[in-house]
Amino acid sequence: KAGVTQTPRYLIKTRGQQVTLSCSPISGHRSVSWYQQTPGQGLQFLFEYFSETQRNKGNFPGRFSGRQFSNSRSEMNVSTLELGDSALYLCASSWAQGGSYNEQFFGPGTRLTVL
Amino acid sequence: DQQVKQNSPSLSVQEGRISILNCDYTNSMFDYFLWYKKYPAEGPTFLISISSIKDKNEDGRFTVFLNKSAKHLSLHIVPSQPGDSAVYFCAASDSGAGSYQLTFGKGTKLSVIP
Q1: 10 Å Cβ neighbour count for B5?
Q2: Which of A53-57, A69-73, B97-101 is predicted with the least confidence, judged by mean pLDDT?
Q3: Could you tell me the CA-to-CA distances from B29 to A97, B3, B67, B76, B96 in Å, in that order?
Q4: Among A47, A67, B6, B74, which is 20 to 30 Å from B103 by CA?
């Protein structure tokens, strides 16, 4: 089974621009979560999608948004980029339908650099 | 407000010895805990998990212990191998929240010395 894939792997943007990152979950997984990793803050939860619906959102400004398609693929968008948005953006997928089973499988991430 | 804390940023251990990585949490709603291992330029890889109904879970060289009253968990690696050198993240989840959000600690960098 193919793992979680993320595109692009690396991205360089300038302040004020917007960016869209893509994530393809493991086949059969319906939950996709996004995390931001920075050296100072570690991994922070951005949002989670399940069956095209956003189920939870972390403490990030409205410039960060996402969506999920019917095939479970997900995109996240960051508008009006700031220098502080430079980070590794990780996508994770899970197959669990509910209950306590909560193992998530991570992709390799997209390294975003904002200049 | 950090709900999951890994107080040791780094740990060095001799090959063959035991590595013990610690994690504390403050949110009593957390009922599922996971450990992930991360190499540079890669995403985190799931290692082992434990539900709050257990106090120990073992998988090969990896054992996770949970002390609910102390809100503390630890990951034991025995014996440690040079390939175990990586950053280890502790994560916690509230399964009753209707979401698969994981709250992570900031990680402990483990170096296993040959």
Answers
A1: 16
A2: B97-101
A3: 20, 11, 14, 24, 8
A4: A67
Write out chain A residues lying below 8 Å of B32, CB-based: 100-102
Q: Where are the beta strands (DSSP E) in chain B?
A: 4-5, 10-14, 19-25, 32-38, 45-51, 56-59, 62-67, 72-77, 86-93, 103-104, 108-113
Question: Distance (Å, rounded) from C-alpha B28 to C-alpha B9?
Answer: 24
**How many of the other CB atoms lie within 10 Å of CB of A40?**
6
Tell me, what's the pLDDT at A1?
65
Q: Which of B41, B46, B106 sits opposite A105 (nearest CB)?
A: B46
Q: Does the beta carbon of A105 lie under 8 angstroms from any beta carbon of chain B?
A: yes
Confirm or reject contact between A58 and chain B (CB < 8 A). Answer: yes
**Cβ within 8 Å of residue A90, ≥6 positions away:** A6, A34, A35, A36, A37, A43, A106, A107, A109, B43, B44
Quick one: pLDDT at residue A96? 60
CA distance B106 to chain A (A): 5
Cβ–Cβ gap B103/A45 under 8 Å: yes
Largest CA distance in chain A: 43
Shortest CB distance from B32 goes to which of A43, A45, A102?
A102
Residue A43, classified by CB atoms within 10 Å of its CB into exposed (0-12), middle (13-18) or buried (19+), is: buried
Residue B46 is nearest to which of A35, A103, A109, comparing CB atoms? Answer: A103
B103 touches chain A (CB under 8 A): yes
Match 């999951």 to its residue by tokens: B4
